[in-house]
Design brief:
Elements lengths: L6 H18 L9 H8 L3 H7 L3 H20 L8 H14 L1 H7 L6 H18 L7 H24 L6 H9 L1
Length: 175
């Protein structure tokens, strides 16, 4: 069994995740084999199986990592912190990791990730807004609107080749 968080394990998992994302740009996860992933990452199948059971396990780990990173940024929001700063950080992260987001957020076959992300964003936003005196049902609808609308803007920004500067898109989403 592989040591959980040593450098080699972290690097191997990064290579496997990168290989999977590269392959998913051309074909759906259901058509990607372990052999494909290993060839793309230049790793052996035995190395793959030290860390993952199949391509879906690898995808799940990648999705969880991305969602954890996003939620970490969202949870930084406090009443004394300007939320626009967090929006800018998220926009920068999305731009920097555009290949991952083009694959996970913009492709129809990755609805599972999109659904998980929306659920986590909704839950975290409701927790952050728990202090609000507004009725929780109404607040839930507003959070849904903001979450879906923001992700739609980001999705279109990615699909249109980042046709606006990070600063502009952050302000648009924030507004």
């Amino acid at each position: 069994m592989a040591v959980k968080n040593n450098r080699r394990t972290i690097m191997t998992k990064r290579l496997l995740k990168t290989a999977l994302i590269e392959l998913m740009q051309d074909k759906p996860i259901s058509k990607i084999t372990i052999k494909d992933i290993c060839e793309q990452a230049d790793l052996s199948r035995s190395t793959f199986y030290l860390h993952y059971t199949d391509q879906y396990d690898l995808l799940n780990d990648l999705e969880s990592e991305v969602i954890t990173t996003i939620m970490g940024q969202i949870r930084k929001i406090t009443p004394d912190l300007d939320p626009l700063i967090i929006c800018r950080e998220f926009t920068s992260y999305l731009h920097k990791e555009h290949t991952i987001f083009r694959t996970l957020l913009c492709q129809q076959e990755n609805l599972h990730f999109q659904t998980k992300l929306i659920e986590e964003l909704h839950k975290t936003s409701m927790e952050l807004l728990a202090f609000s005196s507004e009725d929780s049902i109404r607040l839930g609808y507003k959070v849904d609107f903001i979450t879906h609308g923001s992700l739609s803007i980001f999705r279109n920004w990615i699909l249109h080749g980042f046709d606006m500067a990070e600063e502009e898109i952050s302000e648009l989403v924030f507004d």
